[in-house]
Design goal:
Length: about 325
């Protein structure tokens, strides 16, 4: 992918959202595994992974790749269809029924913050009108235009479904400096766009904002929200753990995946009393111990985590844990 400006924070999203974005490529002549490698998504994503979170950068990379692989019109159609049929309905099931549109959208913004650590969506009154607002940094980066197009289409579809088709987009402010591509998106060719705005914002008619929302079907499954991130180390661990399932992850690769400079990673970890070597070993051996609880096949586990032979694996495990993998496994059996 391109080389965007380095960040200094770890932003994470739920894995289910990354899975959704990969489905936007269905039907295209693009092999999945090379696509995942190019967009810095772990290959294990296709095997019903157990990890709940991934770096937000994976979503940005996927949208940029899709936008550069198809025409703007096809990009818009793919996003519009997936949002209308699957993505928006998955959120509607989690929202409260029988409240005003304003309250419902506020609830949606709170829900979104719990599923993506770098997302801010809210309702605001400005210039005598109501707006659904989305804040996002990175407007100068390549992925941003495609991400903003996605957000506009998603928010339009969200408003249409919450109002049962009564909402029709008329005025939209975008952060991007060129609006021609936005006019090629589904149902937006007659919209009045304002470019180079500080935020992305969709105008909502006054008569809709206090209208009661009827959602209907509700999900019976409890919402699982992102944990409160207390430190850089904790958020970095959530973001990078999926990449250790195949073995060690060098610092330069961690930097590339998270879009955080390697020196920044080391500095932030040092400020919290650790370093990348200790941090990465803690993740790696925690995953190895988890694998040992499920299997007696030490050789297979050694191979899975990238060790050249069982002897090398045994020495590394004993250095870290104080016992051999076989002894660790035996202690589990004895319990």
């Amino acid at each position: 992918m391109g080389r965007p400006k380095k960040d200094d924070k770890v932003h994470i999203v739920r894995t289910e959202h990354v899975l959704f974005f990969t489905r936007l490529f269905e039907g295209l002549n693009i092999d999945l595994l090379p696509l995942l490698r190019e967009t810095r998504v772990p290959n294990t994503l296709i095997d019903q992974p157990e990890y709940l979170y991934l770096p937000e950068s994976t979503l940005k990379n996927l949208l940029q790749k899709l936008g550069q692989s198809v025409s703007i019109s096809e990009y818009g159609l793919r996003v519009w269809e997936m949002c209308s049929v699957k993505y928006v309905p998955s959120y509607l099931e989690k929202l409260e029924d029988g409240v005003s549109l304003k309250v419902c959208l506020t609830e949606f913004g709170e829900l979104l913050k719990r599923e993506s650590s770098n997302t801010k969506v809210y309702v605001k009154q400005a210039g005598g009108s109501w707006w659904l607002v989305r804040e996002k940094s990175g407007v100068e980066e390549v992925w941003f235009k495609y991400a903003e197009m996605f957000s506009v289409l998603f928010m339009v579809q969200l408003l249409k479904q919450l109002t049962h088709g009564q909402y029709q987009p008329t005025e939209i402010g975008v952060q991007s400096n060129v609006i021609d591509d936005f006019l090629k998106l589904p149902e937006l060719h007659k919209v009045r766009f304002y470019s180079e705005r500080p935020v992305t914002a969709l105008k909502i008619d006054d008569e809709l904002i206090e209208q009661l929302v009827t959602i209907g079907k509700k999900s019976s499954e409890p919402n699982e929200f992102m944990p409160t991130i207390l430190s850089f180390t904790q958020s970095l661990k959530l973001a990078l753990s999926p990449y250790f399932t195949a073995g060690k992850l060098p610092l330069d690769m961690a930097s590339d995946i998270t879009n955080i400079h390697s020196r920044t990673i080391q500095r932030r970890l040092r400020e919290e009393g650790t370093n990348y070597k200790e941090f990465s070993e803690e993740i790696l051996f925690a995953l190895i111990k988890s694998a040992l609880t499920r299997s007696h096949n030490v050789s297979k586990i050694a191979q899975q985590f990238g060790y050249s032979d069982c002897a090398h694996f045994t020495r590394a495990f004993k250095r870290y844990e104080g016992v051999t993998p076989s002894q660790y496994r035996a202690s589990i059996d004895a319990k």
